[in-house]
Design a protein that fits this description.
The protein is α/β, with parallel strands linked by helices. The protein folds into 2 domains: 127 residues, Rossmann fold (3-Layer(aba) Sandwich); 55 residues, Winged helix-like DNA-binding domain superfamily/Winged helix DNA-binding domain (Arc Repressor Mutant, subunit A), CATH 1.10.10. The chain is 47% helix and 13% strand. The chain is built from 10 helices and 6 strands, in the order E-H-E-H-E-H-E-H-E-H-E-H-H-H-H-H. Strands 2-1-3-4-5-6 form a 6-stranded parallel β-sheet, with helices on both faces. Strand 5, helix 5 and strand 6 form a beta-alpha-beta unit. It is globular, with a radius of gyration of 17 Å.
Length: 212
Amino acid sequence: MRVLIAANSAIARVGLETVLAQSAVLTIVGSVTHRDLAEQLDALQPDVVLMELELQEDETLTALPALEREMALPAIVVLVDNVQSSWVSDLLQSGIQGILPAEATADEITTAIEAVATGLIVLHPEFLGSLPMTPTSPRSSLPSATNQPLTPREIEVLSMLAEGLGNKAIARRLTISEHTVKFHISSIFNKLGASSRTEAVTLGARQGLILL
């Protein structure tokens, strides 16, 4: 599994390289600053990006949505510290699949990388308590939850979204049409007040509807 490390601190990059070097299944393809990330994503084609973020100062977070419009981004795991609830929502909205504390252990980091590479969402338990029931980011306009409960079928679909399944795979597993799957996902988004699959899964987990 090809992993690209991104951190502005040279010391942080060396530390993360040391952590990943212990894994028999992970291959470090590069170690770059955030400024060089976009260029190296295209050149190195990693499966996962492991990124250290300093949220109060880092502009990379706001750049990710624009970058995603230009290229297919790999799965991203971020290491963050001193996270506020609004930042957790922002991270999830940006398309990041894994959020870990800066002091995460080597096992937690490697496990998270392997998990997001298969399409799973990883949110460290430390951050679940800071996640609002309905996101209220000051830097984005989000849909409001309707407070309607999800149906049993919608909970099934939400669980499959958490597994990283696409519409076709969900349709095959439930023996329904892709059109019906899209209808269920739209309803889930509306009821949870979510604007992305990642956000819907995290909100569902926060409300105890599914387990990550």
